[in-house]
Amino acid sequence: MRLEFLGAAREVGRSCVRVTTGELEVLLDAGIKFAGKNTAFPEPEPLHADAVVVSHCHLDHSGFLPKFFSSNNRKTPYMCTPPSEPLIEFLLQDTIKITESRKQKPYFGARDLRNLPRFCHPMAYRRPYVFFEGTELELLDAGHVLGSAQALIRPKGKDKPLLYSGDIKLVQSKMHLGADIPSDEIGTLLVESTYALREHPDRPTLERQFCADVHNALADGYSVLVPSFAVGRAQELLMILHDNNVRAQVYLDGMAQSATELAMEYSSYMRDARSFREAVKMVHFVSEEKRRRIGENSPCIIVATAGMLEGGPILSYVKRLSKTGKLKIFLTGFQVPGTNGRKLVETGVLRIDGKPFKVNAEVRMYDFSAHAGRDELFDYVEQINPEKVFCMHGEAESCFTFAEQLKQRGFDAVAPEPGSVHEV
Ligand SMILES: [Zn+2]
Question: Which end of the chain has less neighbouring CB within 10 Å, N or C?
Answer without folding.
Answer: C
